[in-house]
What we know:
Layout: H1 7-10, H2 12-22, H3 33-51, H4 55-67, E1 73-75, E2 80-82, H5 84-96, H6 111-126, H7 130-151, H8 154-157, H9 162-165, H10 167-179, H11 183-194, H12 208-228, H13 244-247, H14 254-259, H15 282-292, E3 304-309, H16 311-317, H17 325-328, H18 332-342, H19 347-352, H20 358-364, E4 367-371, E5 380-385, E6 391-396, H21 409-420, H22 426-437, H23 445-450
Parallel strand pairs: 3-4
Antiparallel strand pairs: 1-2, 3-5, 5-6
Helix pairs in contact: 2-11, 3-5, 3-7, 3-21, 4-5, 5-6, 5-12, 6-7, 6-10, 6-12, 7-10, 10-11, 10-12, 11-12, 15-18, 18-20, 21-22
Amino acid sequence: MNPDRPEQTTGPVTGRIVAFITDYNAAVPLPGLDRHVARAFANWLACTVGGSGDGSVSRLLGVMDRVAGNGAATAIGCGRRMDMASAAFVNGFASNVLDFDDMHVPTLIHPTGTVVAAALAMAEAQRATGRALLDAVAIGIEVELHIGRCLFPGHYDQGWHITATAGVIGAAAAASALMGLDREATARALAMAATQAAGLRAMLPNEGKNLNVGKAARDGVMAALLADAGLTSAPAVFDDAFGYFSTFPPVDGYQALLGELGQKFLITEISLKPYPCGVVIHPVIDACLAIARRDGFAVAGIRSVDIHVHPRTAVLAEKQDPASAISSRFSLHHAATLALTFGNADFATFERASVADPDLAALRQRITVQRDDDLPQTQARVTIDLGAAGVVTEHVTRATGGPGNPLSDAQLGRKFVQLCRRTMDDAAAEALYARCLALSEEPDIAAFMETVSTRG
């Protein structure tokens, strides 16, 4: 293949994506990019360790014991060794269990869920360096988010779980980069990932959403391995008349958006969550916490709570009576109730607060949600009638954890330690967090993974 004319055999759109993956130079892209990637990696690892203790992961492992024996990669927090694809599946699943993983609000994609799960399994099996893993994660995230920009919002509104349908491409891109596939093989890997793109939004309030993420990570690994083995596939899957973009219609100008791949780095737009719930709920939580912490506030005095949000936020999270812990993480009413009742909405608060608690249920009934076209999706306005104490209002324009108000390294570190307590003590978690932030210096990811303590 002529390296200057990848479109000759792959098509212009596919060629553009392939060239970004195979020609990526970490020294060029963006000052400070490594820090964004390392923080995103640390956040993913903590969420995966925390999620590994969930009962759904235990049930998944029971299935995996039947189909995947010992191997070269680790199922994090579970004391199991598996083949690369199976480890990517379990870790991708676990990373999404708590809804505490990262989010790219403009596309509603969880960027690291599929990409890091695939890249880490491949890097561990190959004993790759931290530098190689960091670069592969950056590549995978940029590919999936740029593709996500081309699809959103129509693709998402149609019912596709975009974290899976775009994430499988990112996972394959990251795995291909780690394997050092040439352009032709990379194009085949992307095509084999694209033909496996699936995942329904109907799964979001149940454990099926985690399945979507895990499956996409596994399929990305398998796509790279199959391409490396020489299996053939569509050479131009993003240009083909019956390919990815013809099946998943993109927005107008998608070729211009893809043209920014390698020029505009979307990882800088990622939100690292301070609260374990849907990111569109976070501005509401911030507003409720600000009110709850005011002098003289008493939750017993609340007569009514009026929440104004963007219409899409209401569609995603207007659930007055969530039926389970999973669905409560997609409920504006429940999250606001926790913030107002406990003055907190952190991981521990969500874990201990039952949706069946009669006091919480009673307060949820006093909450109404208004759809406001004038509010961006990143904002919220909360007005509370406190009876004799008057009416208070809080308008949040930049939610905590978002790119305009990011978590500090110290805040992210506290989240990391809290989640890792399921498998290690605080000192070990703090040391692991420091190594995550310096991931590019790790000489051997397999050795690094040996320090990720497990339950055995």
